[in-house]
Amino acid sequence: MTDLTGTSFEFPGEYYEIMRKDFRSVDAETEFLSSLLPDGGTALDLGCGTGTNLRALAARGYRGTGVDQSAAFVDYARAAGGAGLTYVHGRAETYRTDERYDLVYSLFMTLNYLPRAELGATLRGIRELLRPGGHVVLEFGHLLNFVDTFQPHTVAHHRGPDGVLITRLARQAVNAHAANWRNEETLLVRAADGTVSMYDNFFDQAVLTGPEMRDLLAAAGLTVTAEYGGFRKEPAPFHGRGPLVIVATAGASTAQQEENHA
Ligand SMILES: C[S@@+](CC[C@H](N)C(=O)[O-])C[C@H]1O[C@@H](n2cnc3c(N)ncnc32)[C@H](O)[C@@H]1O
């Protein structure tokens, strides 16, 4: 039997790219991320999807690594290329390397996909992956963001190049007791020649709150330097509305702090 828990995103990357452009501004994201990178710097994208952000950064001369649990998306990202980019098929929470990065980021609510119990360790891992002076950018969905946008059933259409039309039939369910948000989607893809293909996608997202994230960041030794409501630096949302973009840097490590006080 198919395991229908966790996260899927196993459908052709070109269809994800078509839908993504209707939700996001890659230009605003690139501008924001670039402003935190030194010339020619390196970035780590956790939950990189089809590599959209990394390719845009590579076009500006940055290098980077993307990690994603979707084999289909990693295949797409590798085939799409980009100078100085590498991709790892794996989970963000267990990614380890000897490399250190000027910027570690996770966009489009990907943090919400991680098992809640592993968030603390994941953030500590992120801290270890930073170069001195490096930055972290995390965008996550808030409790009220989920509540405000709750739609048990959605039908949406997304148009791509060459007459491709994607119809997304989405179903959502909230398990308030587990603070878990369940999304199931059927994607109907119509090509210009009349061919129809169909894909199932599903994902569970943890419902997070600003205070919870700030506590987890502090416990991981990450100091919040800015909070915004989006990548155009909109004001941080009041009262748990979201999504929230948090910028952080590594504070001194415990060992470093002890050394400083010695
Ligand atoms: C909404 S997409 C965002 C992708 C990308 N960050 C973007 O902005 O287009 C969520 C992505 O998170 C990935 N994902 C979910 N859980 C993950 C995990 N534990 N480790 C790595 N990737 C994960 C999914 O495969 C999917 O590509």
General description of the model:
The protein has 262 residues and is an alpha/beta fold. It has 2 domains: 13-143 and 209-261, Rossmann fold, CATH 3.40.50.150; 145-206, N-terminal domain of TfIIb (Single Sheet), CATH 2.20.25. Helix content is 29%, strand content 33%. The chain has helices spanning 13-23, 26-34, 52-58, 71-80, 110-113, 119-128, 143-148, 210-219, 254-261; strands at residues 42-46, 63-68, 85-89, 101-106, 130-140, 153-159, 165-175, 180-190, 196-206, 222-228, 244-250. The strands form 2 sheets. The protein has a 7-stranded mixed β-sheet with strand order 3-2-1-4-5-11-10, sandwiched between helices. Helix 2 crosses helix 3. The radius of gyration is 19 Å and the shape is globular. Residues 254-258 have low confidence and may be disordered. It binds S-adenosylmethionine. S-adenosylmethionine is lined by residues 7, 9, 20, 47-49, 52-53, 67-70, 73, 91-93, 107-110, 113-114.
Question: Short summary of the structure?
Answer:
By secondary structure, the chain is an alpha/beta fold. Helices cover 29% and strands 33% of the residues.
Regions with pLDDT < 50 over 5+ consecutive residues? 254-258
Which CATH architecture of the largest domain would you pick? 3-Layer(aba) Sandwich
Structural class: alpha/beta
CATH class of the largest domain: Alpha Beta
Annotation field: number of helices: 9
Order of helices and strands: HHEHEHEEHHEHEEEEHEEH
CATH superfamily of the largest domain: Vaccinia Virus protein VP39
Radius of gyration from the CA trace? 19 Å
Task: Kindly estimate the percentage of residues that lie in beta strands according to DSSP.
Answer: 25-35%
- Domains (count): 2
Strand order, sheet with most strands: 3-2-1-4-5-11-10
**Mean pLDDT over the full residue set:** 90
Distance between the termini: 59 Å
Q: What is the helix content?
A: 25-40%
CATH topology value of the largest domain: Rossmann fold
Shape type: globular
